[in-house]
Amino acid sequence: MKPSFYDLNYSDLEAVISQNGLNPSVASVLFNWHYKKKETAPCLEKISKQSSNFFQQNFDFSLPEIDTVYESEKDRTVKFLFRLKDSHKVETVLIPFNNKYSICLSSQVGCAMNCSFCFTGEQGLKRNLTTSEIIGQFLQAWRWLANHRPGEQRILNIVFMGQGEPLHNFDAVKKACEIFLSQHGTSIGIQKITVSTAGYIPGLKRWRQEIPGVNLALSLHSPVTEKRNELIPLNKKYPLDEVLAYIDEIPLQKKQFITYEYILVKDFNDTPDDAKKLGTMLAGKSAYINLIPINPFPGSRYTCPDWETIENFKAVLDTFKIPTLIRGAKGDDVLAACGQLNSNDKIWLSNTG
Ligand SMILES: C[S@@+](CC[C@H](N)C(=O)[O-])C[C@H]1O[C@@H](n2cnc3c(N)ncnc32)[C@H](O)[C@@H]1O
Ligand code: SF4
After folding, report:
1. Domain boundary assignment for the chain
2. Residue 18 and residue 275: Cα distance in Å, rounded?
3. Which of 46, 157, 230, 351 qualifies as a cystine partner to 102, CB 3.0-4.6 A?
4. What are the tens digits of pLDDT across the range 189-233?
């Protein structure tokens, strides 16, 4: 099987070109056409016949195929179910804001972390995605927008908050970030990419050295060990205080924050005392808190607190002067909100009736 063109970052591509005696300018032409103009692959007519033959013979230009598209009637969120070459499936979400979009990318088919509140966790880990499968989600979603919502193909933010634990698939996610950031390609600003983690320390260790400028979000969910253990079993192996110690060492740019995500679960982690413990833990850090009222999914065991409880929780955090946002669910009518993704065939079939 040929390697995928979309697995190459810019320096990989330059190396391939130089090793095969091709014109060095081919690298920027190919990146420009595939990633900046996002033309349909392979765009090989833009380069010499010799280079074109070489790439056609040696690289695969196919992308994950769109299997099903779910459009939210509530808020125009779009969820894609992609079919991969080996028939595995994975989901991706376009979240609209002011005629622009954030894209929520998946990094794995399923997830190994088994968090008790997450539909993806129930799926178990099937496999890591390749860089090309990550990049492919972006390119296919962009092309879908161009065809179905012309004039709206502005994807301004990329968040790794879909299926999977991105730091558990560090190499592929890192390379995808490098392609997104490349000035020859999509040229997305470094602060427009956010990687969310449940606290996978081996990945955090590499973060500091390898991609410190990309934004990081930590799924914190409870400062209380027993509660966090119940929500995120990974906490037993990599406890929160160790995770926070690693995060504290990440060098931040001016005005850069670490986002701490906190799902609110009724009668579990939603009291003023929980909020006080959270505020005490994060006070003095360059922190931004996202409060996420828990999203339900078929068979989920937790429920969401009422609005008054949520506002009271935020009011306690406000006394610590930590910027805090209550993040409303988008796309929950098509199971596209945080933690509702699951590309298991049986579940997908029962969702679509
Ligand atoms: C699906 S995860 C993917 C990224 C990474 N694995 C993580 O846990 O941070 C993205 C975000 O969704 C949150 N999430 C998972 N299940 C949820 C649910 N049922 N309701 C609300 N948020 C949920 C996670 O805690 C995390 O903050
Ligand atoms: S919340 Fe994140 S780490 Fe936990 S199971 Fe879901 S995708 Fe995996």
Report:
1. 5-58, 65-351
2. 56
3. 157
4. 999 999 999 999 999 999 888 987 899 999 999 999 999 999 999
Q: How far is CA 117 from CA 76, 174, 244, 263, in A?
A: 25, 27, 22, 9
What's the gap in Å between 180 CA and the centre of ligand 2?
Answer: 23
Per DSSP, the three-state class of 226 is helix
Q: Would residue 338 show up in a list of annotated catalytic residues for this protein?
A: yes
Query: Tell me: the pLDDT tens digits for 104-140?
Result: 999 999 999 999 999 999 999 999 999 999 999 999 9
> How is domain 65-351 classified at the architecture level of CATH?
Alpha-Beta Barrel (3.20)
Q: Tell which one of 118, 221, 238 to mutate to probe ligand 1, the residue whose CB is within 8 A of the most ligand atoms.
A: 118
Residue 164, pLDDT > 90, answer: yes
**Residue nearest (by alpha carbon) to ligand 1 atom 2:** 161
Give the DSSP H/E element, type plus range, for residue 293: strand 287-293
The residue assigned the tokens 């954030």 is 102
Specify the DSSP class assigned to residue 99.
Answer: T
